[in-house]
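Please, structure for the following, as tokens.
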Amino acid sequence: MTAQKQEKADAKQPDLRVVDILDPTNQIGVKLRSLYAAAQDEAIPDRFLDLLEKLDRAESMASAKVAE
């Protein structure tokens, strides 16, 4: 993560109280948000992009046949 993205992530984090930190539900939420943020930063694998392109072509061909 770049320094700029880290600064934005730090700015978004709310002020936590001791009670919030010790709350198991809050801990789960914090970890889930962290995991989600990490997943957002990952690049989409080329293989997945290729599959999406094939699907688009197949859908285009199917809709062209229906239009005929």
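The chain has a mean pLDDT of 81. The helical segments are 3-12, 18-22, 24-41, 46-67.
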